[in-house]
């Protein structure tokens, strides 16, 4: 079975909006054993949309469209699907009432424009949309199926999970389930991980693959079986084996993030963390704050955006800062201790380095973690620019806290 | 003239990498008057790649491919282009030497694998790649042209700018230039902007369109002319007109950001800003710090990730914080004054509100700007979740500083 996605919208084609839906849909289709073969983006133009949909239906059994279901004249997915499947549109009065009710619940009145959204290709299976105004639909046509979903990511995702995936499984009798488990590591590079698991990378079911991110290497175990439980049973022994081989380089699985793990460990211990950072520009505090929203574990962070700001932000003596030098291990240590004391936290974490670490001859970035037992120090000379460089530093710093909390 | 893009790579199709190249290429093609009609993504599979390229050459005069030019067996763009244009590949010995030299300059030895990259469809025009190992090429075929570029963004961009755009202009005799100017506003909604410029939105050359972002409305003026200067001459009077109508709602143009404008205004005045924030989780400090890297204007920011962290982070008396209530205007005022005093800044900016502003019945977010002349206050009840909600708050807060600095 072959699936393809058609994303519709001139704003997508011209790059004014970045398409994140296709990637997500591809991943979800894989879990029911449907492989994606093509993604096509086409602008809001009836003849071109229709031609793309016709071609998609010629080569693929499952076609999923996103976008073009809104109430404006630019929204022509309904018309193009009807044209590509040789039928007309009708106004579904039940859907009109449903849309009016959706507006009513939010204290708005439905305009005539919005009625357009209740026009449905004749014979289509209606997919009700409880999270937005655009009703969706599936048209079965010559043994194939074309499903039209809204472009708004949270609406599309909700409908895929609750309606489209169950429908596709039932319609095509898809009995295979593909499950993945992602094991996340830090403090070890992709080639070092690869060397330790080379034999496992030759397996065929489950498969094991690696993927490197800044400061993090993921291992993905993927199994195909007739049920979710059977797939998980294939995955479990491989996961156990990986855990034996990689030990505490593993910080989490699946959707877990290193910041989230640090926040959870702090919350479990009833402890708190305060941060101070230069090179990472507040992104360390931002990631920890986001992770910490669910657990009351973090007090706060100080972002220092210029060398001159360091002493006043932390209550350090300017003469001391000058004597230690910027950046330096001594300054990082003092900053970690100062932010720990100032915010009354159990741990103070400092990432003190150049504002532009990618400049030639830039000094290193110094890490210091002030704990009730003393200081843990670190240093990075990787000198990468941009978000990926900062991602590295944030991972190194967060991993210091994780290892400290785990003892 | 019709252009289309074919992006090649299973990792793109499956969403393991997000395609940012297509959007950029679309924008650049527009500047020479070439309109993009389709983007197709296809995996690393010879028959499917070839079929997609054949179809692209049937419907478009210009086809640009990205990806699949590397040295591995998965890299089949060379083969697919040759097959789609009915020719074979030959090993270009000059290119082999060029690739060997590229490796040599970096202290590496070329492997046999890399020689594959010097295989070129017979009769193709070679596009030398000084910034990577993958040579690129253009094949002219039945009045059409297919150009294959690497997927690595910085290589692709360099080759587009220096080779591909000049080649396309010359090859198709494209004399028109399309230039755009984006006028950026804040503090005024898209519909209010629309109402003020309705007459201009009917123009045909230049055209004027609006686009809403969280807390920001952009106006884009686009002109087509025979030279860049002529296009700019069409744009100038419209820009002047927009400036008359929208006054100080306009904060910048083109690539300028509100954070960047605030940082520049501070630097021009030799003044400094310190921030303290809850709801925005450090993103305000992060944006200002990023903008402030080029101008020494910002001292730093304090991110508070829990209610309990507020008093110690700012040196406020816990009893006072309790008396004011969290959040409240009085607390925001005290926080702004405290962060201003603590960091010795000219301005202290506080954004104090609930950690989850989208919860039903969430209290408002309070803003306070402590200046040498006293306090400026603000409040937002928009209650949006996620990055877009935080984007709104950051824009509102930054615009308070901008308006204060402009008097």
Describe this protein's structure.
The structure is a homodimer of 407-residue chains. The first copy, chain A, is of the alpha/beta class. The first copy, chain A, is built from 15 helices and 17 strands. Chain A has helices at residues 10-13, 21-31, 46-59, 77-84, 93-105, 112-115, 153-172, 190-196, 228-246, 258-269, 283-292, 310-314, 318-324, 329-342, 386-406, and strands at 2-8, 35-42, 62-66, 89-91, 119-121, 125-127, 136-141, 144-149, 177-186, 207-213, 216-225, 250-253, 273-277, 298-304, 347-352, 365-371, 374-380. In chain A, strands 2-1-3-8-7-6 form a 6-stranded mixed β-sheet, with helices on both faces. In chain A, helix 2 packs parallel to helix 7, helix 3 crosses helix 4 and helix 10 crosses helix 11. The radius of gyration of chain A is 27 Å and the shape is elongated. The two termini of chain A are 51 Å apart. The model of chain A has no long low-confidence stretch (mean pLDDT 92). At the A-B interface, helix 2, strand 2, helix 3, helix 11 and strand 14 of A face helix 2, strand 2, helix 3, helix 11 and strand 14 of B.
